Amino acid sequence: MRRLIVPFLALLITSCAARIHDVYLSDQTYPPHHQNYPIRIYRDTLPDEPFDEIAVLSFRLSNKLQSLDKALEAMKTKARELGGEAIINFGQRTETGAIVPVGGVLMIDSDPVYTGTVIRFRDHKKLR
Fold first, then answer.
1. What is the pLDDT of residues 34-64, one digit of tens each?
2. 41 in a domain, yes or no?
3. Which helix (H) or strand (E) holds 55?
């Protein structure tokens, strides 16, 4: 029994791990920020300050134990690693993963996907 529990727990932990997908928009690299660096989130507006786009991030909540807070924190962590200072166009869409037969009925497996673009302000020294 114990031999079954350890692999099951390992599978559960890895399925809860944050999976961030990124698409880089620039060849420019920036030094990462410290783990508590504040990352601004812009949902419906854009910042007034000039900025450069670094990468587009997406986070799929494929595990029902995950939440919006987990997605947002994972995306902020990735933004810090990229030297970003904010995430713009933050939003959610629903993605269909599969059609699964359940008890003679076909169920659509869909998950929320959060996306946003990591940016760095051109005059970032003023913003600290």
1. 999 999 999 999 999 999 999 999 988 766 6
2. yes
3. strand 51-60
Residue 112: helix, strand or coil by DSSP?
A: strand
* pLDDT value for 10: 40
Distance CA 123, CA 101 (A): 54
Number of structural domains (the chain) is: 1
CA atoms within 13 A on the CB side of 68: 4
Contacts of 3 (CB under 8 A, 6+ apart): none
**Secondary structure class of 116 (helix, strand, coil):** strand
Asked if residue 5 has pLDDT above 50, the reply is: no
Question: Is 70 exceeded by the pLDDT of residue 126?
Answer: no
DSSP annotation of 73 = H
Nearest to 115 by CA among 85, 74, 66, 63: 74
Cβ contact 99:108 at 8 Å: yes
H/E stretch holding 72 = helix 68-81
Q: What pLDDT sits at residue 39?
A: 97
Structural domain that includes position 97: 19-127
